[in-house]
Each structure stands twice: as structure tokens, then as C-alpha cells.
Model the fold of this input.
Amino acid sequence: MTRKTIEQIKAHKNKSEPLVCLTAYTMRVAQLLDAHCDLLLVGDSMGMVLYGMENTRDVDLDMIIRHGKGVVRGSAQACVIVDMPFGSYEDSPQQAVQNAQRIMDETGADGVKLEGGEDLAPAVAAIVAAGIAVVGHIGLLPQTAQDSGGFRVKGRTDDGRAQLVRDAKAIEAAGAAAVVIEAVIEDVAAEMTAAIGIPTIGIGASRACDGQILVTEDMVGITGDHVPKFVKQYAQVSEQIAKAAGDYAADVRARRFPFDDNVYRPKKG
Ligand code: KIV
Done:
């Protein structure tokens, strides 16, 4: 089985079938998703989803690399992209290249993703010039949202709309292979998608995008009580885990578990 290349991801712009993308943080989950996805993202959302952090800013390079390695090991056909953590690319294009190279060398991933529009285009261009594929991320930027008006849907004002289109064009011009658009109103996402020649991958950005991505744990119903409007839960895995734990606890307390089948005994004969 051959892995989808970043060029194949890029070529989806001209295909009628949208890109299917999900986050993966672990080897086992990557194995389960691999056959169904064009792209797996080792997202820094892992900080909140896996580690219970308040936001994504405490995820560091060592953490994302550890998980990136697992996802590459667990997948064979999906293109694997690893998020660049907050603080690993903003200081200078040189810093961005150095850390992107470290992610690539240590994980074996197909590319990196970083958050930012026009202002981060020099970092994107430098990483691309170093021969590393980049997926951009514009619209709502979780790493910096708390410094710039909070976690709000983007594109509701004329200025906001114009900036989003400029961001999309700047990220394309910098050489990105695709761009994630997060939490943008539908007609603006459509305008951004029409304005550029690389695929847009939407999360909370409508069907107008060239592909879709969700956090897998949201999609399978394994997160907390708040389910964002843009998420559709295709399963309720939390309920199944809680039920399994309850059944196990009852069996242990009643001394039913381990059952006969689960016990090692001397071999007969
Ligand atoms: O970190 C992440 O999971 C992401 C997706 C939400 C696009 O950036």
C-alpha cells in the first residue's frame, strides 16, 4: 500500500470528491482511521483532548513528535501532517524551519501545519523552501484566540472577510499545499475557497470547502459535555466505555471476573 502524497492532496482542488481528514494522536486510532481518510492530522488539540490542558498552548515539540511517530507507525495510506506547536515557529522563519525539520526527521510525517495568515506567510515560505510541505491554518486560530477576541466565528464583518481572503491568498502564495479554514461563515468560506488554487479543508466552515476535518474524539462522542455546533457525532463511544467499565466493575465486585475462559490452568495430559 502506498501513502497518499502531499501532491495528491493538493491535486484534490480539481476533483469533485472532497478530502476526508480526521485528527489522530495515537497508533491504534491511526490504524482505525487510515483506510477511510486522505489525511490524518496529529493536531495540537491533543493537549485538551488527551491531556486535559486548558488550551493548546502547552503542547510542545517533544509531545507532538512522540504522538506523530505513533500515528505514522499506525497508518499506511493516509498522508500524515503534524501540527507545529505554539512557540515553535512564530519568532523567525529560521526557527520555523529548524523545528519543522525536527518534526519531519523524527516522525517521518508528510508535512507540518501551522496557524496564521498573512503575518505567518514568511514562515510558511521558508519551510516550503526547505523542501517541507506545509498545510496552513486560517480563520479561528486556537493557539492565539485568547489574545485576539476569543473563540468566535470569523467573517461576520467586511474587514474580517477581506482579511480572511487576503490570508488565504498569502498562504497559497507562500507555497502551502492546502489550508485549514476554521470557524468561518459559509459565504466567506466559499469566497476563500474560490479565491485560491489549493484545497481548503474546513472545520466549522461549511460544505463550501474542498475537504472536511474533525477532531476524531468529537466525531465519535468521546469528549466532554460541550459539543460545538459544527460537530456531528457519528458514535457515542463515551457511553460504551462507561457501560463497559460499569459491567467490569460489577463482575469484579461479584467475583465473577475473571471468567473460566480468562484463567490459566495446567495443560491437560
Ligand atoms: O489541532 C487540531 O486538531 C486542529 C484541527 C482542529 C484542524 O488544528
